[in-house]
């Protein structure tokens, strides 16, 4: 298998939160895929798709991190399950919705301008123009008040914190795909920014460290800030 993954100037700096969902899913199933580092302006390489991750499995091409996770679950049913029995998949989908709709915007406001420093030079203008149009202001303005903004993020994570106070992973004693989805967001942040999102004594920070240790410390090995 091959996996198109968003990379920075350093092709080893794989920083897409969605690609991390797939990297973790592959590792959880004991599978490997060759990484094809991809940049925002490389659209022709993944046409007709417009975003990464894109997984190539022989003749089959699958795009979208959720669709890829479902594909891997169905194609490799004898490997460890990503979702567990019903309604595991549905609840995992809810975690993805929380991360996409609530967590990402809050995190972006704290670190989005930092991404410029790790991008491939060819991506800088595209990233700035497309994201500034989305925010309606410069990227520097977006993250200008991050010292106070980080408290908002920490408040928003309270339901996650409550769970991780009582159990090592979101899914219980062992991590499953819902953990990987949440982790993707934190892995994205550490790949692009030195800004500290979590207090050192936060149970979510301890969970993040446990996630970094998984699969032989796979996520720890890519270029990142902490
Ligand atoms: N729903 C998609 C979202 C993927 C996505 O937004 N990927 C970003 C990288 S993190 C991308 O490829 N963006 C292309 C662009 O902004 O032009 C998924 O879950 O895979």
Can you offer a commentary on this structure?
- With 226 residues, the chain is α+β, with helices and mostly antiparallel strands.
- The chain is 54% helix and 8% strand.
- α1 runs parallel beside α3, α1 (17-28) crosses α9 and α4 packs parallel to α9.
- The two termini are 30 Å apart.
- It binds glutathione.
Short description, anyone?
By secondary structure, this protein is α+β, with helices and mostly antiparallel strands. The chain has helices at residues 17-28, 43-46, 65-75, 88-111, 121-135, 139-142, 146-156, 158-166, 177-192, 203-217, and strands at 2-6, 34-38, 54-57, 60-63. The model has no long low-confidence stretch (mean pLDDT 98).
Structural descriptors:
226 residues, alpha+beta, Glutaredoxin, four-stranded mixed β-sheet, 10 helices, 8% strand, binds glutathione
> What do we call the CATH homologous superfamily?
Glutaredoxin
What's the oligomerization state? single chain
Average predicted confidence as pLDDT: 98
| Beta strand % | 5-15%
Which molecules are bound besides the chains? Answer: glutathione
The major sheet is characterized as:
4 strands, mixed
Present the secondary structure layout.
Layout: E1 2-6, H1 17-28, E2 34-38, H2 43-46, E3 54-57, E4 60-63, H3 65-75, H4 88-111, H5 121-135, H6 139-142, H7 146-156, H8 158-166, H9 177-192, H10 203-217
Parallel strand pairs: 1-2
Antiparallel strand pairs: 1-3, 3-4
Helix pairs in contact: 1-3, 1-9, 4-7, 4-9
The chain binds glutathione (GSH).
Glutathione (GSH) is lined by residues 6, 16-18, 40, 51-53, 64-66.
């Amino acid at each position: 298998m091959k996996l198109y993954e968003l990379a920075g100037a350093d092709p080893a700096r794989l920083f897409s939160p969605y690609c991390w969902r797939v990297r973790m899913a592959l590792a959880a199933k004991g599978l490997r895929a060759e990484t094809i580092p991809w940049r925002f302006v490389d659209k022709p390489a993944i046409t007709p798709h417009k975003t990464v991750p894109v997984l190539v499995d022989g003749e089959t091409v699958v795009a979208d991190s959720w669709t890829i996770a479902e594909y891997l679950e169905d194609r490799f049913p004898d490997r460890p399950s990503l979702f567990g029995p019903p309604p595991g998949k549905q609840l995992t989908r809810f975690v993805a919705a929380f991360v996409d709709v609530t967590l990402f915007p809050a995190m972006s406001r704290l670190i989005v301008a930092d991404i410029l420093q790790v991008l491939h030079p060819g991506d800088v203008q595209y990233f700035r123009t497309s994201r500034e149009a989305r925010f309606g202001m410069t990227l520097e303005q977006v993250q200008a008040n991050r010292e106070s903004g980080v408290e908002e993020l920490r408040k928003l994570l309270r339901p996650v914190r409550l769970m991780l106070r009582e159990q090592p992973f979101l899914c219980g004693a062992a991590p499953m795909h819902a953990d990987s989805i949440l982790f993707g967001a934190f892995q994205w942040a550490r790949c692009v920014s030195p800004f500290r999102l979590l207090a050192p004594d936060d149970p979510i920070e301890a969970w993040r460290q446990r996630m970094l240790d998984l699969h032989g410390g796979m996520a720890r090995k890519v270029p990142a800030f902490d």
